[in-house]
Design brief:
By secondary structure, the protein is of the alpha+beta class. The protein has helices at 25-47, 82-96, 98-101, and strands at residues 5-13, 52-60, 70-74.
């Protein structure tokens, strides 16, 4: 069956953004969330045309471990496709790695 909807949840942990001082954590996290959201939307809309895509990127202020992106793919309003969800999550790993190397989202403190 064809996919109808893909829901992606991601989170950014403020304490995990930088190992050095001198950055505005909240502004940097907002920029990173925007960048990751655009990467996810662009990739999924191009790869799965006609499928509804919902992306939510949360920013966590409390310390915690990094978590992989969560993906839920639906083939109907209520029926999920677990195998396709795993495939899509794996597909997103490569496009999202740019956010680790490209720090254009980082905001230095004045």
């Amino acid at each position: 069956m064809a996919l109808q909807r893909i829901i992606v949840a991601d989170r950014i942990v403020l304490d995990n953004l930088f190992t050095e001082e001198g950055y505005d954590l909240e502004k940097s996290a907002d920029n990173l969330a925007d960048m990751r959201g655009q990467i996810i939307m662009n990739y999924l809309e191009e790869t799965y045309p006609g499928v509804e895509v919902c992306v939510d990127i949360g920013i966590q202020k409390e310390p915690g471990p990094e978590q992989p992106v969560e993906v839920t793919a639906y083939i109907s309003d209520e029926e999920m496709d677990p195998e396709q969800s795993v495939i899509i999550r794996k597909q997103l790993v490569e496009p999202l790695t740019i956010t680790r190397t490209d720090r254009t989202w980082a905001v230095r403190l004045p």
